[in-house]
Design brief:
The complex is a heterodimer of chains A (about 150) and B (about 130). Chain A is mainly alpha-helical and about 150 residues long. Chain A folds into 2 domains: about 30 residues, no CATH class; about 80 residues, no CATH class. Chain A is built from 7 helices and no strands. In chain A, helix 6 packs antiparallel against helix 7. The longest helix of chain A has 20 residues. Chain B starts with a helix and ends in an 8-residue tail after the last helix. Chain B is about 65% helix and about 0% strand. Chain B has one domain. Chain B is built from 3 helices and no strands. Chain B has about 130 residues and is mostly helical. Classes of the chains: A mainly alpha (about 150), B mainly alpha (about 130).
Chain lengths: ~150, ~130
């Protein structure tokens, strides 16, 4: 009897950690509560005051406008014709990254140099790649994404 | 290419301009957050909120599975904030100002820069560029 109670203690402890015998990683998840929203709020309170002011903010507005223009131009007019006209021969495998980089090249000359330029470029290429690659699945916060 | 066309068409029909801007602002926030994460990781600031993303219970680098799971949580949380930003833009009647035809107008750019800044400050409760 005494022996079985000794064995029960570690089993109980493992259950509290969400164990099920899945090892240390499961314990890590349970023991370090990670609140992404809270972390983002706290990090942005650090990041925002460090961001440059004035015209350095321009890339955000320009990439927003350009992303919408590019997406709707393609949506409404089709892109095959534009590709044929420019003589581009792009394999299917590289089509999306190639076309996103190509479109960024057209935008880049209007983006002023500065700390936000790199962020804007990554955000633009990420946005357009996900839009073209994943379609409606690009937005992950399911249930809140319906167009109002 | 037909897949890309289909994906684009479906997305725009379902989510419209708002969806594109949510995706863009989510990506911007992820870039800003990642920048801070890298900064804290390189400087091992133990009391920084960014460092917790990488840590396990012992204060060591968390496993790749945990980091991947957290990345998804961060993406979801960034999307919620991005939606808040876009709804704020919409409520102020600014969505239509994200227009290719307007981006060569310096006065429009200055005005939009200021309005976007104010919305970020409202959403995150901090001053933009306060320490620059």
């Amino acid at each position: 009897m005494g022996t079985s109670s000794v064995r029960r203690t570690p089993h109980h402890r493992r259950s509290q950690r969400g164990g099920g015998g899945d090892g240390e990683e499961n314990q890590e998840i349970m023991e370090l509560v990670f609140d992404a929203a809270d972390n983002i709020d706290r990090i942005m309170k650090i990041v925002l005051p460090l961001l440059p002011n004035g015209s350095a903010k321009t890339p955000i507005y320009i990439v927003g406008s350009e992303a919408l223009f590019f997406a709707y131009q393609w949506h409404e007019g089709g892109f095959e014709n534009a590709i044929r006209e420019s003589g581009r021969r792009i394999s299917k495998e590289y089509f999306i990254p190639s076309i996103v980089n190509w479109s960024w090249g057209k935008i880049a000359e209007r983006i002023p140099d500065g700390p936000l330029s790199g962020i804007a470029k990554n955000a633009y290429t990420s946005t357009m790649t996900q839009l073209l690659d994943k379609g409606v699945d690009a937005l992950v916060d399911v249930g809140r994404s319906e167009k109002s | 290419m037909s897949d890309a066309q289909k994906n684009l068409d479906e997305f725009l029909v379902r989510y419209g301009r708002e969806g594109v801007l949510i995706l863009l602002f989510r990506s911007l926030l992820e870039e800003m957050i990642k920048g801070e994460f890298l900064h804290t990781r390189n400087n091992t600031l133990q009391d920084s909120p960014g460092i917790r993303v990488f840590q396990n219970k012992k204060g060591h680098l968390a496993s790749s599975d945990i980091l991947k799971k957290r990345e998804t949580e961060i993406k979801r949380a960034c999307e919620r904030k991005a939606r808040e930003i876009v709804l704020n833009l919409k409520s102020k009647g600014l969505l239509s100002d994200f227009d290719f035809k307007l981006i060569s107008d310096e006065s429009v750019i200055r005005e939009m820069n200021h309005k976007v800044k104010v919305i970020f400050e409202e959403v995150f409760g901090a001053r933009w560029g306060d320490e620059v």
